[in-house]
Amino acid sequence: MNHFDTRSGVLHAEGVDLEQLAASVGTPVYVYSAATLERHYQVFAAAVAGLGDGNPLVAFAAKANPNLSVLATLARCGAGADVVSAGELARALAAGVPANRIVFSGVGKQVFELQAGIDAGILQFNVESEAEIEMLAAVAASAGKQVDIAVRVNPGVDAKTHAKISTGGDDNKFGIPIARAEAAFAQAAAHASLNPVGIAAHIGSQLSDLDPLEETFGRLGALMGRLRGLGHIIERVDLGGGLGVPYRADLPAPPLPEVYGAMVARATKRWDVRLIFEPGRLIAGNAGVLLSRVILLKQGVAKTFVVVDAAMNDLLRPSMYGAWHDIAAVRPTGEQMTATVVGPVCESGDTFADDRDMPRVTGGDLIAFLTAGAYGATMASTYNSRDLVPEVMVSGDRWAVVSARRVAADMMALDTRAPWLET
Ligand code: LLP
Question: Ligand 1 center to residue 270 CA distance, Å?
Fold first, then answer.
């Protein structure tokens, strides 16, 4: 459920009229609904409440939407954060996420990032290689600290999602192959600066089938038993994120959080650990839209092109993954058309929808790409020297620009002329 509805003929985000918002801020612009973020967090937290030792941690995957106001909204609900870079760590801390609710994942953490996590006093590092264990042990030792780690394993399970967002197969770069987990644990336990307290897995994103997750959790349970048999104390298991969201109103939705929660309850019965979850898309996906204005319509040989002012640089998912985003007219007429929706960027891949049956629009109209709150603005670029898309957050009748549009002058200010090119 989300808080984007048509009221009095105009699409609203909560109490805010998106036509008026677009007139004030300009387009393209991302619009987030705070009430939707809160609701999604609460629904997920309720679905996993009481599991494991009864004190699960829901650590929002900051990569899905690291905007400070998004992180602060979730932090106020009690969310932690899963971060994968010093930048995300800085954002989570600045947004008010307590350090003891932050887990640090990622295959290529650098020394300065490990240092930043140690300095902040985060809950744990999810280590993804034997080499990282050595790096972290050395950094922690020189800081005179002992740090908690979970060994992220690669369970060798096919997540049955898009290849570019599958992370738990044998050919993926993530985690330590599960067959080497015991050795990795022993390696970590040999360092006084490391305290191996748990295991972790994340097999992919936008999952619509719970079976691969249940299979993974079964393998984690078996591994936990083996590790305990070897004398290790396993206090936490991080089950990752990955639960999919509905992108298409005309297709069945992925399993609901309560169904996921029931599966986790089954799979983790008697584990006696603190469970950690890292949902990203599930919290933020349907809490955001990308508003865009139609520039013009153009007839090709066989296609009708709707050229809009948003482009692949603003919302990369359709061109990168062939992803589908439903398209709504901000002032729907009830009429439909078949059109190919494209942006102004000079690439044929700059296509949001191909021969889509969609609301009829014409030059000057506003449209919204739905389910754009996760992996939207954060993956934006300034390709073709386009402005960096701004972000707005709505709460009830209030709204605020929570990330400013960066225009050509802002970006040129960061370039310099090489001295030999000064006249
Ligand atoms: N934990 C880890 C270690 C992850 O790598 C990810 C996502 C998550 C949690 C959150 O997964 P979620 O709950 O959001 O599915 N840009 C792609 C998605 C990449 C996901 C990368 N990792 C997209 O737009 O579909």
Answer: 28
C-alpha of residue 200 to centroid of ligand 1, in Å: 14
- CA 73, 33, 209, 262 torsion-angle sign: positive
Would you tell me how many other CB atoms lie within 10 Å of the CB of residue 292?
A: 28
The pLDDT tens digits for 264-274 are 999 999 999 99
Structural domains of the chain, ranges and CATH numbers in brackets: 34-283 (3.20.20.10)
Structure-token pair, residue 147: 């740090």
Asked if residue 375 has its Cβ within 6 Å of ligand 1, the reply is yes
Å from CA of 378 to ligand 1 middle: 12
Ligand 1 near 40 CB (within 6 A): no
Q: To test ligand 1's pocket by mutation, which of 278, 283, 312 has the most ligand atoms within 8 angstroms of CB?
A: 278
CB-CB contact of 373 with 279 (8 Å): no
- Digit-coded pLDDT (tens) for 207-246: 999 999 999 999 999 999 999 999 999 999 999 999 999 9
State the pTM of this model. 0.97
